[in-house]
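batch job 7 of whatever, protein = ATP-binding protein
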Amino acid sequence: MPATSLPTLIVVSGPAGAGKTTLAHAIARAVGCPAICRDEIKEGMVHAAPAGFVPGPADELTMRTLPTFFATLELLLRAGVTTVAEAAFQDRVWRPRLAPLLGLAEVRVVHCVVDADVALARKVRRGKDNPLRRAHADPAVDDVAAHALAHNAFDRVRLDAPSIEVDTTAGYDPGLAEIVAFVGGPGLQDRRPQ
């Protein structure tokens, strides 16, 4: 019997407004796997939230979302499912929670980057265009300098795993084909049973 290989865990990270969710879904479609997005889990939870729910940095749903996100990743990886994991977590949140999963998957990290002013414009637009954002305590964006400071201080995830930086300002640089090749898209096909 041939030895089975590990699934791939593709971690997509970066500051808010960096284009992570859109890229995570594009990678998942190209590779042929699920994308598990932290904000989408919380947006699903808000439908069953008590009346009068008010989002905040440590609200009930935020506290429930974190373990749910990582438990979902673990469940999928233990089942041998290659998975895209997307969140705006900084290193202090990602690294300790990914450590137990490292033996379950080959990890690839995709860092999304964009200038602070582009991220700010995206955050303003999605706040207006997406009613599901009511699940999140999106910070006020009226202080451009404070936003830029927080954006530029983002502490990217640091794992002992291959990583790639993707500028999402106008499309993807490097392009999606190169990103998919980096995460093992074509190589995933080589690992499938014939």
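notes: The helical segments are 20-31, 38-45, 60-78, 91-98, 116-129, 144-152, 176-183, 185-190.
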